[in-house]
Amino acid sequence: MPSLTTEQTAMQEAVEALYALVDRTHLPSDLRVCFCPCCVDDNEYDALLTTPVRALSPDLIRAYSNSAHDTPPAADLRPLLPRYLELMSVGEDVDYTLVGTELLRFGDAWRQQPDLWSVGETAQIEAWAVAYLRAEARHGDDGCALAKAIPLLIAGGLRPSLVAQTCQSEFEAPARGQRPIVDFAVTLAWRDLRPGRTSLLEWFAIGYVTEAEKQALADWLNSPALATCVAEATQTEGLTEEELFGLDTLFGAIGSFAPASFPDHR
Question: What is the rounded CA–CA span in Å between residue 204 and residue 151?
């Protein structure tokens, strides 16, 4: 069995600490779901109630994600978040629709109830998020891993400043070289950036967050620190035409981001 990376170990430790702090072994007996034929069936619902949270299979978690509409109550979400994070730590999908909204129901609840998580619980959730971002930047299986993680976490209620600071530190770390910022720029240029359009950056999940969160994200995307990283990366020897295009496109967009640059689904 391969040894865990530093980031995987950090995620595992944060999840274990969150399980202990939440201290719930099962979901509540009145768990709120939709019983439409395309959502969850009686057998799945019974399994959700009787299976210990730690043992909920990825299929059951996805069934819950498919059936928990709107914003579920805190009593449903609090015991579930550690299991979601645990599965995501090992690359398991926790939703059928992989558009960056996998943690949105938790984020919406957190925005509506700022005290949803205690100070100690918040610290562990943030520790997990930092490790998750670092893992995506360092070990992601494709160049768009980090670009996918950013909107996913912000939609999930993580502070944009925390997400931005973590990404920026990865871009600036000498040991990482230029690869993280190059991969990030290429992904944005070829998949997400739409120069000249009202929605400049097509991060779907960001359409569900607040204006203040969008502004904080835009502030980082416009920052001199990010611009410096992109400019320095363009001087790297051996870049492909695709990589140079990505860096040039991102550099040209810096300074143009605003809350209106993102989708708006609210």
Answer: 8
